[in-house]
Amino acid sequence: MDNNLNVLLIDREENSRNVIKAYLNEVEGVGIAAEFSDYESGFNLASTSGKCIVIVDISDNMDRVVTDIKTLKTSNKEAYIVALSGSNSADIIIKVLRAGARDFISKPVIKSEFLEILSNIISDIKSDKSQDSCKIISTFSNKGGIGKTSIAVNLAVELAQLTKEKVALVDLNLQLGDVATFLDMTPPFAMDYIADNINNLSEDELLKTMSRYKNTSLYVIADPLNIDKSQDITAQQIKNILTALKKIFSYIVIDIGTNIDSKTISALDYSDLILLIAIVNLPAIRSTQRCMELFDKLGYNADKIKLVLNRYMENEDIKTADIEEVVKQKVYWKIPNNYLIMMSAINKGVPVNEINPDSNVAVNYKEFASKISDYLITQKLNKNCNREVRI
Predict the structure, then answer these.
(1) C-alpha distances in angstroms, 351 versus 354, 363, 370?
(2) Edge-to-edge strand order for the sheet containing 135-140?
(3) Same domain for 106 and 238?
(4) What is the pLDDT of residue 3?
(5) When you count CB atoms within 10 A of the terminal residue's CB, does the N or C end of the chain come out lower?
(6) More confident site: 113 or 158
(7) Which of 105, 126, 147 marks a domain boundary?
(8) Each residue of 16-73: pLDDT tens digit?
(9) How far apart are CA 386 and CA 389, in angstroms?
(10) pLDDT by residue (tens digit) across 333-384?
(11) What pLDDT score does 322 carry?
(12) Are 222 and 230 in contact (CB under 8 A)?
């Protein structure tokens, strides 16, 4: 038992605990350290138990238990939390996973599903995979001037505010990047310094070289301070940086330049989600079509690509259906055209929610961040549980 991974079982129903214990007896490498019928005692022990699996029924007083899960993830990052509930609505699943649970299982618990999830968790622990599976979101277009950087910046800000988790915003427009300008930041360190030193930086040191945006959980890596330095950055260094960031951050938002080179391809390959940005005019649509052809050659799954229309107006001559037919991709999101608010934000170096949080574009970005966060959470759940959850 000493070499087993400890399991803490928190469930008010004795019969339910007995079923779970019977299933656990068939799982090698785990042992029940303790079982609880009350939440407070269970979470108190879990907070000091180091690496462990916490199986908790959230059916009773769900809001309180979700808060307890958030607190536990702060006090014990090595706790793998599996939530149980008799209700399996998408809203509940997303809420508990966003709080920090690793997996969700519907009650009554199906033995095969339970054993598969436990097996996946044990496999991740043995392979030393990060349980806080960071998601990389890239904004991309091979055409400039369509608002790609604005989308990356405002999305990253909203993700940080929504999730309260660490979000990295990386400027990979290495020669003419504007991420720092859009947030009125003057970083002491930039991409070139981090690229040169990434193999020698600890997690704490890496975080200190990044620039924190005001009093938020958003951290920025700006483009090189010296434009000549951008030529020296390699695709391998980009990979090393993203690998290191994934150990620290829950989300990484990358503003990718328009050039198609090995650095761009490396970032796109590493991305979990590529936001392909377009505006509604023929040249931009044609460029978007070329991007889709590139993604097809790179072998990207269609689910990895999300088509986003920027500066959208309902009375456009070119309709959404026409764009989808040409590009062979459904429109995932539309960001409304609000020139005055956007230009005011850019000129003042702040996100749009600081100009007017009630404006149509500010509300849209908030909803956009929520949709992306929920989508990535459900993708993780579908992968872990072999279940289709749609939002």
Answers:
(1) 6, 12, 16
(2) 211-212, 218-221, 167-172, 251-256, 135-140, 273-278, 305-312, 331-336
(3) no
(4) 64
(5) N
(6) 158
(7) 126
(8) 999 999 999 998 888 899 999 999 999 999 999 999 999 999 988 888 999 999 899 8
(9) 10
(10) 999 999 999 999 999 999 999 999 999 999 999 999 999 998 888 776 666 5
(11) 93
(12) no
- 390 belongs to a structural domain: no
Residue 69 CA to its chain's centroid (Å): 19
The pLDDT of residue 14 is above 90 = yes
Q: What per-residue confidence (pLDDT) applies to 383?
A: 63
Residue at 206 is within a domain: yes
Can you tell me the distance from the alpha carbon of 235 to that of 257, in angstroms, rounded to the nearest whole number? 14
Residues 219 and 280 in one domain: yes
Range of the domain at 143: 135-385
CATH of the domain at 29: 3.40.50.2300
Average pLDDT over residues 136-143: 95
Look-up of token digits 């809420």? 95
| Structural tokens at position 238 | 């980009």
Using the Cα atoms of residue 128, residue 129, residue 134 and residue 140 in order, give the sign of their dihedral. Answer: positive
* Residue 355 sits in the same domain as residue 209: yes
CA separation, residue 61 to residues 74, 88, 327 (Å): 21, 15, 47
Domain count, the chain: 2
Peptide bond before residue 336 is cis, with ω within 30 degrees of 0: no
Supply φ then ψ for residue 273, to 5 degrees: -145, 130
Residues sharing a CB contact under 8 Å with residue 107, sequence separation 6 or more, in sequence order: 16, 57, 59, 84, 85, 86
Q: Which two tokens stand for residue 59?
A: 């059916």
Give the span between the Cα atoms of 197 and 199, in whole angstroms. Answer: 6
How far from 141 is each of 85, 284, 292, CA to CA, in Å?
A: 42, 9, 10
Alpha-carbon separation of residue 242 from 8, 68, 191, 198 (angstroms): 34, 31, 12, 10
